[in-house]
Design a protein that fits this description.
Keywords: Membrane, Transmembrane, Transmembrane helix. The protein is built from five helices and two strands; from the N terminus they run αβααααβ. With 115 residues, the protein is mainly alpha-helical.
């Protein structure tokens, strides 16, 4: 295929899981320590590992520790508690920062499309 006419062929495999994870992180703000908390932790942790895998495939190694840390922090097996008022404020901002990181990684992690 001619790259000059249509530009280079790239695919952003991490975009869909990044957007879904960002939506889950924003939705988790509504249910901090609520009934859906454990389900959302599974979703966020699994999508963090998926985005990390796409970063490995694209050879964007700097994203791997970021999403490894997100997978550990939001893991449902040994959850971090956020019951005190200071921790709730921290988790509020942590959710928003993680959502921004997911969307940014979704746009920046790209690989050349196979013919």
């Amino acid at each position: 295929m001619d790259d000059t006419r249509y530009g280079p062929n790239f695919q952003r495999n991490a975009l869909a899981p990044g957007i879904i994870a960002a939506l889950a992180l924003v939705a988790a703000q509504l249910w901090l320590a609520g009934a859906w908390d454990e389900v959302l932790r599974y979703v966020i942790a699994i999508l963090a590992l998926i985005v990390a895998w796409f970063a490995i495939q694209a050879r964007h190694w700097w994203w791997v520790p970021v999403f490894g840390a997100i997978a550990v922090i939001w893991n449902p097996v040994v959850p971090f508690e956020w019951s005190t008022p200071g921790q709730v404020a921290f988790w509020f901002w942590a959710h928003l920062v993680a959502a921004v990181l997911f969307v940014a990684a979704g746009f920046l992690i790209k690989t050349r499309a196979e013919e």
